Amino acid sequence: MSIASDVHSLLEKMGVSRDKYTGGTLSVRTPVTGAVLADVPTVTPEQVEAAIAQAATAFGQWRQVPAPRRGELVRLLGNVLRENKEELGGLVSYEAGKVISEGLGEVQEMIDICDFAVGLSRQLYGLTIQSERPEHRLVEQWHPAGVVGIISAFNFPVAVWSWNAALALVCGDPIIWKPSEKTPLTALATQALFEQAAARFGEVPAGLSTLLIGDARTGELLVEDRRVPIISATGSTRMGRIVGERVAKRFGRSILELGGNNASIVTPSADLDLTLRAVAFGAMGTAGQRCTSLRRLIVHESVYDSLVGRLKQVYANISVGCPIEGNALVGPLIDKASFEAMQASLQAAKAAGGIVHGGERVDVHGPEAFYARPALVEMSAQTGPVLEETFAPILYVLKYSELEDAIALQNDVAQGLSSSIFSTDLRDVELFLSAAGSDCGIANVNIGPSGAEIGGAFGGEKETGGGREAGSDAWRGYMRRQTNTINYGRTLPLAQGVKFDVG
Fold first, then answer.
1. How many helices (H) and strands (E) does the chain have?
2. Which domains are seen in the chain, by residue range?
3. Sequence-ordered list of residues with C-beta below 8 angstroms from that of 498, at least 6 positions apart, any chain
4. 3-class secondary structure, 296
5. What are the backbone angles phi and psi of residue 473, rounded to the nearest 5°?
6. What residues form the catalytic site here (predicted)?
7. For an engineered disulfide with 239, which of 235, 268, 271, 456 has Cβ 3.0 to 4.6 Å away?
8. Rounded to whole angstroms, how far apart are CA atoms 1 and 12?
């Protein structure tokens, strides 16, 4: 299997010049086989400084372009992505290890958010507010905020960029992207496709979209620079603590998408056939490497034996294999460190009394590729590794008797990203969705916690960071609010009845 040559061919088709992925110091490996795909050049601190300066200049120009015109650039980007969906989706599979349908699905997400943002470019609405003063008008409007720094993770190497980029661009903001060091090739391809869209658009200021491939220091330079008022960072809670503190110290704004220890509750009235399918995808899709992956399953005691017995069979028979050949549903973990973290969590679960089914390494493409059978772990209590997020296909299963206890169990973790309930009882569903129910940013009914659509705002609470990306009113995070009071009369009445007569 010559993956490197296939990858180089895809890069060439998408317009990435050879000097961008050869002769550099960052070796990029595919999780499919562990082989080196490319050696990518990285940026220097001086190049980061120049990029930020250029983006700041671009902001002065781009913010004056009418928003619907800015939307036209994003429309063209969506078209370019449609034309290159197979190539970019294939590259995602090679570099991130996703099965083909998931690689293509990630590019479809990019297309969808572009469509959303094009419509949004004519809907950046403010408010008209009733003034307490006669002959006064009170209004609220939104202006571009400035350069947006995007720091993305390996598991969604291009979709997360698009969530931020499409909105930022229609909102009038330039973007600077620091991708994961594990997935720079998809970033190179995406930047090349953006440049094709920009060429079709014409009159795009230099530095409107910049790609910076580098190590953690590159990200730090973005985070610490006052000329980058907004930082959108996706990654671990540990990383988010650092980013949030440093950005807040300079009074910048953070959009943080961090850890997710997501749970689903299965009630006595659940449709178990539907639940089985949803749990399987939620826990094993993308080899458990989604921030919304299902990690805890809380099952009512009356249906526990039936559901868990069926799940054990699914886990024992699920197809684990090469994501770019055949029909395997579970591909590789991203690297050796991820596999070792999975094994350490399983050992900790055993030490805490857990019963582990699966989790062993599967030999696919040799010793440098890290495939693992998904693990189902029966736990008597929510303790030890159950309270942590391990970015691997581990599903902890717990039993409950009262729904209020199940909700409390679900909420009793540090993260608050996604959650779901399986039930056909309206009372159970409404309790779960109420203020006394799930404390997560996403709460689903009769589906798993993963697979969010771009129409809704994506993000979570507590140690998930509180940020929101993609749909709904997430666009406000990329703009600054301005309140305007207009006096169209000839007198000067003051608010709250204050008197200040000077003659």
1. 14, 23
2. 3-258+465-483 (3.40.605.10), 262-455 (3.40.309.10)
3. none
4. strand
5. -105, 25
6. 257
7. 235
8. 19
Q: State the Cα–Cα distance between residues 252 and 177, nearest whole angstrom.
A: 17
Q: Which residue's structure tokens are 């698009």?
A: 162
Integer CA distances (angstroms), 464 to 258, 259, 272, 443, 472, in order? 4, 5, 30, 14, 19
Positions annotated as catalytic residues are 257
Pairing of strands 415-416, 457-458: unpaired
CA distance 297 to 496: 55
- Does residue 338 sit in helix, strand or coil? helix
- Is there a contact between 247 and 258 (Cβ–Cβ < 8 Å)? no
* Per-residue tens of pLDDT for the chain, all 503 residues: 589 999 999 999 999 999 999 999 999 999 999 999 999 999 999 999 999 999 999 999 999 999 999 999 999 999 999 999 999 999 999 999 999 999 999 999 999 999 999 999 999 999 999 999 999 999 999 999 999 999 999 999 999 999 999 999 999 999 999 999 999 999 999 999 999 999 999 999 999 999 999 999 999 999 999 999 999 999 999 999 999 999 999 999 999 999 999 999 999 999 999 999 999 999 999 999 999 999 999 999 999 999 999 999 999 999 999 999 989 999 999 999 999 999 999 999 999 999 999 999 999 999 999 999 999 999 999 999 999 999 999 999 999 999 999 999 999 999 999 999 999 999 999 999 999 999 999 999 999 999 889 999 999 999 999 999 999 999 999 999 999 999 999 999 999 999 998 87
